[in-house]
Each structure stands twice: as structure tokens, then as C-alpha cells.
Amino acid sequence: MLFDTEEAWALYGDRAHFWVVYRPPRYEKPFWVAAFDRRVTRVEYFSEPLPPVGGKTPAKIVHPVGYPLDQLLLMYFLARRRGILTHAAGLVRGGRAYLFAGASGAGKSTLSALLAKAGIGKMLSDERMIVREVQGEMTAFGTPWAGTAGIARGGSAPLAGILFLAHGKSHRMQQLDPAAALDRLLPLASIPWYDPDAAAPIIAFAKDMLARIPACEFRFAPDPSAVEFFERRMRTPA
User: Fold this and answer.
1) What is the CA radius of gyration of the chain?
2) How many other CB atoms are found less than 10 A from the CB of residue 136?
3) What does the alpha-carbon distance between residue 237 and residue 83 come to, in Å, rounded to a whole number?
4) Alpha-carbon distance 238 to 70, whole Å?
5) How far apart are CA 125 and CA 150, in angstroms?
6) Contact 89/108 with Cβ under 8 angstroms?
7) 69 and 20 in contact (C-beta within 8 Å)?
């Protein structure tokens, strides 16, 4: 066993494969089991009809690739392919992407709703974003996972900047050096700390990304003037 949670699932593995086992407490047998190789080139999914428990109809599997399997697969897929999944909102403005990174409560959904209402660009997500190196360029991608603002769209654009969110009484941006930005990013990223072989390439990618992409802390008050402040700071010559 590599990892287990109170959410009824556990991860097992050896040097070549992983097994995700999902067993809700009221079931004696696993609800489903998924197996995949370390490079995520093949995934096998196993489930079987379950008998009623306590007279209740057993739960149904609406989509096999749901939580936590979807995020585990993506985390391991990106680890071997120059990429990272992180807690961040994403905006595409003027053909370039900006990430607004932060833990729960940092203001991702609040700022996303303000940006969406202002219509200054296309919001891809208010909760999770992916960054991958594509043909030598850091590129941000939307994900299927929305936050409280309910924003989750497909789309991608070259990454122009990363803004780490914090609440404030007024608006302020402060540049961060790559080391300080890395300290902010790693707790927000999906990294299998229990698996050094997979964690190492994700961390290396994060270091490279932050050496090439500017990052700052963005303290903002939750009102429309935050969008105006962002626009002024990010405006570039045509």
C-alpha cells in the first residue's frame, strides 16, 4: 500500500504498476478496482454488480473515470510528460494565459467570477489548471473540474504569468523570485510525495517553469476594481 484515505479508496503499487481500490464502508467487496502502468499507457477498470446493502439499492457507476481515478491518472500521466496539475484559476486574455493560484479560500472562484463578469477574456477554470511544455513553450490548459464559480472549459494558450492569490483590503502585486514562487506552488500542485520516482520529474518541471514564467503575489479586495487593477498591470503594447 502506498496511500490510503478516509474516503474509502487506497493506492497500491510496485515498480511497474499501480492499483486503485475503491470500497465504500458499507460494502464488503471493492466497488471498483483500476490498474495502470507507471507511464499510463494502459488502464484496466474492473467492477461487478453488487448486492443491495441493508435493503438499499446499490450505487451505480455513472462514469468509470471519476474521482479519485481521474486525477490520479492525470497526475501520473503528466509526471512523465513534462506537465503539472495545480489548484489555480485560468484566464486567456489576448491570446495568452494567466494562472491565479491558491488553496481553497484564497479567492480563485471570487476573482474568476469578477473576471468572467468583466468579459476581459475567456475563463478556462476557477479551480484546476494544467501546464505542459508543448513544442518548447509552457502552455496552460483548462480541466473538467470546476470550483464554486462553476467554470470548467476546454482550451489552451501560452502561459504568460502566474499570480498567487491572497486577500487584502486593497490591490497589490509583488514580484516573486523563482525560489519563492516554487515554495508557493508545490503545496498547490498534485504531486505524489509518497512516490519519489514520480514526484521528482514534476518538481523538476515546476522549477523549470518558474525559471521561465514570471510570478507574483496578487493581493486583492473582492470588488470589480480588482479586474481594473489586473488590466492595468498586465497591459502590454499592441
Assistant:
1) 20
2) 5
3) 30
4) 40
5) 8
6) yes
7) yes
Three cell numbers, residue 201: 520529474
Q: In this structure, what C-alpha cell is assigned to residue 43?
A: 488502464
- Residue 25, sorted as left (phi over 0), alpha (psi -120 to 50) or beta, turns out to be alpha
Instruction: Give the whole-angstrom CA distance, residue 131 versus residue 149.
Output: 21
Q: Can you tell me the distance from the alpha carbon of 135 to that of 182, in angstroms, rounded to the nearest whole number?
A: 23
Q: Which three cell numbers stand for residue 212?
A: 521561465
What's the pTM value of the predicted model, to 2 decimals? Answer: 0.91
Q: Say whether the peptide bond before residue 192 is cis (omega within 30 degrees of 0).
A: no
Closest of 127, 28, 121, 20 to residue 76, by C-alpha: 20
All cell numbers assigned to 26: 458499507
Pick the CATH number of 82-234 from 3.30.70, 3.40.50, 1.10.3120, 3.40.190: 3.40.50
Written as nine digits, the cell of 28 is 464488503
Domain extents for the chain?
A: 3-69, 82-234
Instruction: Name beta bridge partners: 86.
Output: 129, 189
pLDDT tens track, the chain, 238 positions: 998 887 789 999 999 999 999 988 877 888 899 999 999 999 999 987 766 666 677 667 777 888 899 999 999 999 999 999 999 999 999 999 999 999 999 999 999 999 999 999 999 999 999 999 999 999 999 999 999 999 999 999 999 999 999 999 999 999 999 999 999 999 999 999 999 999 999 999 999 999 999 999 999 999 999 999 999 998 754 3
C-alpha cell at 136: 518548447
